[in-house]
Amino acid sequence: MFLLRRFLVLLLVGCVAIPCTRLSADEAARSANSMSVEETLKTLNARLSWDPFFKSGKLISRGHEAVFFAAGSNEVPAAHSSENTAVIYDNKDILTLQAPFINNGKLYFPPLFVASLKQLFDESQQEDASRFRIAAIIIDPGHGGKDEGASADYVVNGKKVRLIEKDITLAVSKRLYTSLKNRYPGKKVFITRLNDTYPSLEDRVVQANSVPLKDNEAIIYISIHANASLNKSARGFEVWYLSPEHRRTVLDKTKYTGPNALTAIFNSMLEEEFTTESIEMAKAIENNFKKNFSTLMPSRGLKAEEWYVVRKARMPSVLVELGFVTNAEDARLLSDPAYLQQFSLSIYNGIVDFVTKFENWNLAS
Questions:
Q1: pTM greater than the 0.70 cutoff
Q2: Class of domain 2-128
């Protein structure tokens, strides 16, 4: 991001000194030979984010992006058809391409600019398809429907308020679901319920284990809950993963067939890998909770347990306990929409940190 901001400043400073002329026959011809926004977006299978103040744009296609700066202005077109601009691709590569330009208030793209970006987007997509990556994310709001989960009654501003776990988990999960879908348009993001329904524990796991994946694709599972205790002073968030001592079958036997001894070895290796990745994901989520709730709610740490959903899901999985509905201080946060957004953001940032680290591991290997 620092590199992107630095180039924005340099280019804006440079634009001040660019001489501009009135519309000429050459400029009119250039507009006729260039591509409109609609043609460009269709060719690139992209969407455009445009900043009219800075005359800068971002083309986003299949999870990749190119930031560019247009020549000219709404009133005065660019002076030279050969003018170039810096294009920042995926926030790391800097290219020099013939500049898009503004003519009579409309944005146009040189065909060579579009062709160059199409090649980059296509190559990136081919690379994405070939390397190991997380292709799907399952968000599981705990409880629902007839199963309320934990609950507690409080008096807030003279009114009786009932705090119910199933409502808290759904509110946080829906925010998280939307954020992840916006962040990862190229990944499959699922949520086990979007309303006050009751999918059984088995239903949730079957949905997760039934997601079709290619050989180079992985999936992760995040179950969201709120805590309760007879001890009213118990409070804080915690993140659980499956105990490494628990033995389970994670190998898909429809894909891997062979001698039982060899299958057992492969299953054990995959089990260990899932445990390691689950712990890494739990750490990433806990670290972001600590950042957002450092003075508001204590961390109860990472814990290992054989919860049904993490035990039965054949993938890296964690269970997040947001806080205690039975504690007055935690309840104050769990009943506030602004803090529910912070809970969601903490999990979101943790998932993003883990996905980035996971995919970089596999990119380097």
A1: no
A2: alpha beta
